[in-house]
Specification:
single chain; 417 residues; mainly alpha; Growth Hormone, Chain: A; 83% helix
Amino acid sequence: MTLRKVVKTFTLWGRNAKILVATEPFWSIPVSWVFFYRVIFLSESLGLSGVQIGLLSTVLTFSSIVYPLAGGYLGDRFGRKRILLLFDSVGWLGSMAVWIVSKNIWFALCAYILEGLASIIVSVWECLLVEDTEPQHRASIYGYISVATSLGALSTPVAGYIIGSYGVDPGCRTLFALSFVSMIPLFTVQYIYLRETETGYRIMKEKSFAGVKGYLGSISMIRRNRIIATLLLTSIIGNSYYSVATYLPLYLIEKRGLGLKEEIASLVPAASSMSALIVASLIVPRLTSRRDYLRALSSGYCFGCLAILLLAFSPQGNLPLALVSGAILGVYTGTAFSVSRTFLTNEIEAVDSRARAKILSITLTLASLLNLPTPTLAGYLFSLNPKLPFIAESCALVISLTTLILATRKRGSAEST
């Protein structure tokens, strides 16, 4: 995609989309470093076991059960912008401050609890991201959000250099501090330039829909719409990937895994982000129809399954094969979030745009609730054999692909009769 086309695409977005996409790197780049090396920090600096790390992840998952529902209500009741800035800043700045001074599992627990507050704003953030932009242009918005995320993973070798130069403990604390500093301009710009959406203003005036009545109507909508229900189900299944991905850094450096050095291990997410960057910037923005979304999601699930199995069965110390599997995995990460969210938000738009915040909140809550034991289970499987959680995740991707294909075939058959 040429620079002229990128600029043209940018002009088709609403004001909030432009601000959120432009500021996303201030969050995605340092947080990608933190997410990759934090589990190593917990293991080597704080001395936690795989099961203890899984239990901490479960605490974060538990926070994601209740908080998104609260976010859907608070965003509709008090406005998207106000809730976004309040809980996003407290959650991320607070958690990073605690990580900087962490000494034991209790500090880590406090940091995870604070980070959990940020899950309140996920559905609100998505509403601000898309509500002032026409549906046919939303894939490009999510695509460039994925580009920002890929840039974070692509720059992970910078974090690897910091870790290699200073060691795991001071190096990780440096990453936490860099993340804290980076988020200050992010929240400052969003405070000044973000605007409440028209849909947000309308719902704030309709107080009955902003409350329990709105949730009941949203649940009824999910039950009536096969595509929305299917996308919700695949989101729940796909959410297990993030629990398993928590153990990827450990798998890459452990002797029972690939046995790579800490600073070299960061090349794998960099390879993944490179292909994800290409997919998210060149392919995803071109998707405009339901058929396009289905093809992209199906391909992503297939490549994701292949990549995870390839990584799980790579010979120890084989960096080239690990890089190949990482590059293939990037096709999945480059499509799974951006395409599924575009698909879901557009399906909601076709039925009732007022329900967007609540359906997105319900999706996040159910995904977290049903995946509550997943981090601990992944940690247990990892302790038995580092390959097991990745093999289990490949099976989950197959289930997601099968569910999507069956549901859309039934929908197509129903529409043709």
